[in-house]
């Protein structure tokens, strides 16, 4: 889990712009956000509205993630090193 520094403003600002204040979940303690998210997930399962992956859906999602994570990265539109495709 990433650490959070409350003294820094997450929104980038340009010269002359007033820094934006943190609002909503961004202003909350990460542990409190996690607790609220947990309640939402439990409520969805109790109501029967939570999505439950079938083994086929899970397999396809894993396959798609594996392809995306092993695709050559391209910077500035130029082919990645060793990638002759264009």
List the helices and strands and how they pair.
Elements: H1 30-47, H2 55-69
Main beta-sheet annotation = none
Given the structure, what is the number of helices?
Answer: 2
Q: Determine the fraction of residues in helical runs and give it as a percent range.
A: 25-40%
The helix/strand order is: HH
> Helix/strand-derived class?
mainly alpha
Low-pLDDT regions: none
Q: How widely separated are the two ends? A: 37 Å
Q: Calculate the mean pLDDT score and round it.
A: 78
- What gyration radius follows from the Cα positions, in whole Å? 21 Å
What is the strand tally?
A: 0
Strand content: under 5%
- How would you describe the shape? flat
From the structure above, extract its key features.
86 residues; mainly alpha; 38% helix; flat
Structure overview:
By secondary structure, the chain is mainly α. The chain has a domain at about 30-70. The protein has 2 helices and no strands. It has helices spanning about 30-45, 55-70. It is flat.
Brief synopsis:
With 86 residues, this protein is mainly alpha-helical. Helix content is 38%, strand content 0%. The chain has helices spanning 30-47, 55-69.
